[in-house]
Amino acid sequence: VHSNVSQGCQGGCATCSDYNGCLSCKPRLFFVLERIGMKQIGVCLSSCPSGYYGTRYPDINKCAKCKADCDTCFTKNFCTKCKSGFYLYSGKCLEKCPDGLEANNHTMECTSIVHCEASEWSPWSPCTKKGKTCGFKRGNEVRVREIVQHPSAKGNPCPATSESRKCIVQRKRCQKEGKGKRNREEKRKKSNKDESKETRQESKGRAARRQNREQRENNSKTQPKKRKAPNKEQNLAPVDTAH
């Protein structure tokens, strides 16, 4: 062991020196060189920093730098996040996405183009004119549909979600609002009157039945009880049959 190599190191180093820092790491730690000014210092970390990927060897685990356009990577040839100005596609960082794909500025990835999708048309509405369904012969009817998939930036735009067309119906007179309201009020009063009449009749019937029952009870209390007629056979004198 060289005179400037120490065995009693700190920070995960297995061996170290005062000038170069860590020379080797403890098991499962990664060795990486950090630049401080003009000098590189060896450090031992549990995981590789941003811009590096880890490789494990029997004698040492090392952190190697990703490509210049890659912010984080799994291996040297497979990037997982690109630096600003580049878009990720299949592990590579590109300035422009391939044909058939579009750049997503939110995720900084190349994604598939999504076109707009709409549902089927609804049935045509009743023929109306100025919000009414009566008092006219020619009006309009409409139908609608919903957007079920909104498009991406380069996708086909969405179509119209409503359609209108002319319609012809048989003219019918509109019932005046005041007259209709008056008829409904009269029907309601008549119904209430009939219900009140039936209620009064039922009350009178119950009262009459109660009065008859009370009258029968009073008559049964005041009427004297009839005496039973004597048995004629008991009043006859015994006949002497001796003579």
From TrEMBL:
Residues 116-170 form the Spondin-like TSP1 domain. Keywords: Disulfide bond, Glycoprotein, Heparin-binding, Repeat, Secreted, Sensory transduction, Signal, Wnt signaling pathway. Residues 175-219 have a biased composition (Basic and acidic residues). Residues 11-110 form the R-spondin Fu-CRD domain. Belongs to the R-spondin family. Interacts with the extracellular domain of FZD8 and LRP6. It however does not form a ternary complex with FZD8 and LRP6. Interacts with WNT1. Binds heparin. Interacts with LGR4, LGR5 and LGR6. This is R-spondin-3. It comes from Neopipo cinnamomea.
